[in-house]
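User: Some background: our group keeps a shared notebook of sequences we're curious about, and every so often someone picks one and asks for a predicted structure to add to the entry. Today it's my turn. The entry only has the sequence so far, pasted here. Could you supply the structure so I can complete it?
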Amino acid sequence: MSTKNYNTRTAGQAKIPVLGLGTWRSKGQDCIDIVSQALKMGYEHIDTAQAYSNEVEVGKGIKQSGVARDKLFLTTKIFPDDMKFEPEKLKAAAKRSLENLDTDYVDLLLLHWPDDRVPLSKTIPALCELQKQGLTRHIGVSNFNIANIIEAKKYADVPIVVNQVEFHPFIKQNTLQTFLHNHHILLEAYSPLAHGDVFNNDVIKEIADKHGVTPAQVSLAWILSDKDRIAIPKTSNPNHLQGNLDAIKVQLSADELAKIDRLARSDGRQIEHPDYKPEWDD
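Assistant: Of course. Here's the predicted structure to add to the notebook entry:
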């Protein structure tokens, strides 16, 4: 795929654009239009999931953009309810995603959540098989803790390249980040703007004012300052697309990064999690 517009992060054989468009809660024509506009503006990374019920719209947005399929990095995720207990159901769910997205393959296929009712000993080999069949170029996980990833790696004979988790300045993820770094797995940050809370934080606002940028750009620049991290901010406002993309150019000082690091707190999680969520590491 092309990487002309911005940098990539590498894990295994995957080269993933550092900043993408998240599409959680994007629906209908708005979803089609925001995906299309983002790609036309230079985004090369789109993230969706079966649970978002918008794969069809994402696929239409890609087609509407006129951007060739091999010029973008496309991710989708499969929910535990779709995996059940049989590898064949996981494979069938993945094929449904391809039909919805109107594509022959995705660049990255993730297990959306760990679930003790869905044995990784069965789902991970099935996920690996999908890569070998060419239905996905790479595989990964989402919302996995360290124990989940250790278990998953036992059954994977291809690299797990990403763990997509909630990540922003107010959440503690140090233990997980160290583990991922040591195992050459990228941390992909969803909700990187903390549901807008970064706009109201005095530390982030002060840094943003100093650089003449927005608090959103500061939060994204902080995330991307670490070479093992990727961000997928979601927006339904076309006016925010360019600003998020421009965050790649923002360079924060070591002192500014340290000030933002200190904002993390033990109760910083904001996303509602299912009953079967894992025990978090931080």
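Suggested note for the entry: The beta strands are 8-11, 14-17, 21-22, 45-47, 73-78, 106-111, 136-142, 160-166, 186-190, 229-231. The domain at 12-194+229-235 is CATH 3.20.20.100 (TIM Barrel).
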